[in-house]
Please model this.
Amino acid sequence: MADGVKDILDNTQSLMSRAIQHLEAELVKIRAGKATPTMLDGINADYYGNPTPINQVANITIMDSRTITVQPWEKNMLAVIEKAIIAANIGINPQNDGTFIRLFLPPLTEERRKELVKKCNTEGEQAKVSIRNIRRDAIEQVKKLQKDAVISEDASKDAENEVQTGTDKFISLIEKHLSAKEKEIMAV
Model:
């Protein structure tokens, strides 16, 4: 196999893997009824003028399956963290008792569970579109190699089939992730 084709296939594999990692990170943020510290990932508090992730200015712990506590390392950060959580609009109202910020997750209703499943499916669809775009770009690169007479038509077809096989593998992986997340969300 020509080096150019191998590079294209390796790059395609790498990009598709990153798309899957991004999907996994987005699915973790969608709560399934259980409290997890990762629910606060991506929320930044103003730490002396710098937007800083909450987990870098406070200790985040899980009290029980529905309660997250946030204990800032500096007491003056309580109000700042509370404002950041409210501004993030994650659907949880923080309760500040002067030492801790407690986040009580309400039980999920059937309607809310269905909304979360839709949100998961939207994320999955975005990942599939990303995978398909990566496939399209890879096939265009392979066809350019064939056009430039770097590889034969047979080698081009083989490379395209390999790209498609990889695409199918990653699409089915997305489906597995979505199915597992849906099962987790719908479990009462």
About this structure: The helical segments are 3-29, 78-88, 110-147, 153-186.
